[in-house]
Amino acid sequence: MSIEDILKKVFREGWEGMEIGLEAAIAVMAVTAILALYIFLIYRLMTKKSFYSRSFNVSLAGVSLITAAIVLTIQSNIVISLGMVGALSIVRYRTAIKDPIDLMFLFWSISVGIICGAGLAEIAVVLSVVLTVAVLLLEILPDGKAPMILVVNSTDMEAEEDILEAAKEYAKRPKVKSRNMTAQSLDLTIELRTSQGAELLKNVMEVDGVSYASLLSHDGEVTF
After folding, report:
1. Which of 2, 101, 150, 209 is the most exposed place for a label (fewest CB within 10 A)?
2. Domain of 193: which CATH number?
3. Which helix (H) or strand (E) holds 178?
């Protein structure tokens, strides 16, 4: 089989009805390695973690190569394929995926291995390009502005309405998220949106009975 025929099988036609030789296997692993390196670089560029995990990134590239090798082996021999399925079914993975973006990259890596191993590397290339463009476009889109949290302590048990009225002058739709009351004080946690935080705090502190007010921002989920 010529190099041209091997590349045609690797990228477009697949391995159905033919025996996979050493040259074809090397070609598949080479193409998979190139795409795995691409995934490695994209993950390194796009991740925003404070502590970048190089070991996880290296494992993404390794998973693609291992998956491609498994798919090639399964296609070459039906007996080996049954044994491989049985062996893999007893393996349990207990490493927790803490970031959803890591899960996306892991599935991307596995998919590239499967597709290349099946002899359809052309689809893997298209997948990689389209997914990269899609993720970059989604990264560019502006995030919604997260609401802020106003924490107020008052010695006046009946001051809730006055506090909300004072907050409404500089905030949109203040909403009480929690109320804590003791024998001497009232604690309120209020969710709101404002661009005038300093003025809002001054206005709230002027309410009779208010002894403490704090305005907090957070990086949690945005509520629209």
Report:
1. 2
2. 3.30.70.1710
3. strand 172-181
Q: Kindly state the tokens that stand for 136.
A: 């970059």
Domain co-membership, 129 together with 169: no
* Model confidence, pTM: 0.61
Residue closest to 192 by CA, chosen among 214, 159, 207, 209: 214
Q: What is the pLDDT of residues 71-121, one digit of tens each?
A: 887 776 665 565 566 555 555 656 667 777 888 898 999 899 888 888 888
Handedness of CA 157, 162, 167, 168 (dihedral sign): positive
Range of 193's domain?
Answer: 148-216
Token couple for 96: 């927790």
Q: Identify whether residues 11 and 105 lie together within a single domain.
A: yes
- Residues 134, 184: one domain? no
